[in-house]
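sanity check both lines:
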Amino acid sequence: MSTEFVNSVEARDYSYAINNLDSEARSDSTHSYAERPSTDSLGVRTKEAPQQYRVYKRRWLGLLAFVVLNGVATMSWPWFGPISPTTAAEFGLTVSQVDWLGNAPMLVFLPFSFLVPILYARIGLTKCTWLGCLFLVLSGWVRFLGTIKSLSPGAAYALLMIGQALVAIAQPFFQVLGPTYSETWFDLKSRTTATMLVAVSNPVGAALGQLISPLPSSVRTSILVLAIISTACVPMVLFIADAPPTPPTYTASRPKNSFASFGRALVGRHNPQADPPSAQMSVRERFDFLIVALTFGVFVGQSSAFGVVTGQIFIPYGYSDGIAGGLGSTLLFVGLGASLVSAPIFDRVLTHHLALVSKILVPITGALWLVFAWTVKADNTGGLFALMALIGAISVPTLPIALELSCELTRNPDGSSALLWSLTNVFGIIFIEMQTYLEAGDDGKPPGNMHKALIVMGAILLGTSVFQILLKGTQTRRLEDEKMARETGGADEEDVPFNPGAGMQQRNMSEPTMYAYAEHVPAAQVQVLETQRQEEQEGDGEGDEPFNPAMLQSQTPFDIAPSPGHA
């Protein structure tokens, strides 16, 4: 392997890291890593033993936590959709004001979705999810304070709105970091499945919200139920850890590309001193990402808007709140079942054909939404449930496909996920306002119907799906991972004692890797690694041996020859 090393994908990253290390050490003598050992003193040389990869059973517990927390956070968004007329009557509000309880989270989500990747780089995955849980609990009980009967309609509405804003702050911590967790903990045989489960927990949570909110006897009781659910799920966060001791894939073993490098890559810029080669995007990759982002934003934005205006779509035709919520839930629960079946197929059979699957499923989904405009009519319950099930079975599995393709094209899971989910909220707000504007007046047949709005929405979705024809979607990240996996024989599965919050500090990382990549991993994780290095050098008790870098298990394709200072 030593003769082929210069041609490998890791050669570029290592060369970049060492050059970046030396330049930073010269330019900033006050930096905490300014006194790093030089590359000569490290005695770097290539070696034949490749990096070994491993997966851990506990990864499924962390994934379950992401699914539950993201799903519960999503429940609040469409919670008032099926009960919008009832909520308006009980709190003395207008239906338009109630609709804004669904719009507000979409607006607040936008800035915080871009802050999450930055926070992740600074404090790590575990602390980010704890922050998300804090805002989730606060949202539930602030919203419940708005149900106090002595409050004026304005004061009650303000508390309901603040509660919705708080849950919008909480959700990006789970939704945006979902693909990052799957990349960090899962191997090639299950990474798409993990991304799928976190992605579909979003619509499933919305479905549960639509299904549960009409069940309690009053709107106030319904809001209390939501607060209890939001609090009960929080202990799940204990299952989430930053990273496994040994990475599952080649991609997971490398430092994460920064959010700033992602922004530069999108506009075709590259900073050799700050961005690793993997952060660069070709013109074709940028074009494909634009198609994926646009399609994802429009289609998921329509699903979000549908959850908010569900009652306004069906109730004018004589359907009850319960039927309206059931129709929305049918779409999403059938979609969940289809996703559970299809995700393993994408992982193991259609591994290299995600773009092809997207080209087929997305236009079909657009056509079905257009047909939906003529299916909404009185006394057509069976036909509506059948069409909702069909839309769900075809559309929901495309969620993880889009998220995985965005990771493949950008090599930046948190940055690309933040942008995609933000677009869904932008389009969701636009579509809600547009459909409300196109709602029929009192002279409509029936009064207040949304037939015209549904036709316009179907046309927009079908028109957007045409861009899928131009999608190529080369899966660069997977190709690199497969190449490295072939050299090592894949990832072994191993279990370790559960330690909540144990993160990057567990990972086997050689000293030069730690130093060379220090600027591209979260600062909190770097500090832990530095502390461990110092303790090993000094020895912390009787029987300790002097620190010897050669005794560490390296994660990179080079050995370490002990320098005189470490001998």
Notes: The domain at 278-483 is CATH 1.20.1250.20 (Growth Hormone; Chain: A;). The first helix runs from residue 9 to 27.
